[in-house]
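User: What would this chain look like folded?
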Amino acid sequence: MKTAVNILIAVIVLIIALSFILVYANTHPPRYPLHIPPSEYGVAYESVTFTTDDGIVLAGWIIEPPRGNAAMPAVVICHGVGANKSDFSELGASLVKRGFMVLLFDFRAHGESKGRRTSLGHLEQKDIAAALNFIKSRPGIDSSRIGIYGFSMGGAAAILSAARAKGFAAVVADSAFTSLRDQARDAVTGFYHLPAFPFLHLSILGYELYFQTSVSAISPEEEIKRLAPVPLLIIAGDGDRLIPAENGRLLYRAAGEPKELWVIPGADHGGTLVAAGPVYEQRVGQFFERHLKGRR
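Assistant: Here's the prediction, encoded as structure tokens.
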């Protein structure tokens, strides 16, 4: 009897430990080195830093088009978990060539930014707020014409920030999840192949204790209802197994007008830009031109 009790206790401890390890592993991604800077795509850039309201120093690159007499529009670009600003150098350069000032930056705990943990969309809203304040402070910016682009976690955080803070005039979200609860479920059952009970419930508890917030508060599908009339472009890959395209469809259905949905055939997670080729930069660029520069 005593042996059975000891085995039961050991199993319970193992399950709890594994659940908390999952939380730790997903909130402490490895830092990957920067690779291709914007200069590789024919544009000059400036390395900058700015600080969040909770004291995290973030690193970024500012890319500016030739200055004219009129104040210019701008776009803030947000990467996903485990990535960094250099992953979007090409997209940033393409937007600069269309006349936008662009800020590429590293979220906390990524790239060259400070911080030791990522919260998968919660604290990253502070990072976006700091990025917005920083780019608004740049000379020659029209603060009423600032757009935001985000991929994966960056897309989810972009939706949350734009819906809550009301500082962005256009939003592009590629491969964003509907809610952190749904994403955790898909990761536990689909990626790690573990049963939802008890691992999902314990992982959510671990996250909430670690970040002192409710997982339910990180729900782009709910917040997106408050985004309108800010124009929205949702992008998804129909081959994405990490954040399936149904996430994009649900976000699109929940959003108000004006909105667009683009599901890219054959694109897996992180592969939308490659799968669509030059059409990707063209469509994203034209979307921002329509809504930040008034070009039809």
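Strands lie at 46-51, 57-63, 72-78, 101-105, 141-151, 170-174, 232-237, 259-264. If you want, I can go into more detail on any region.
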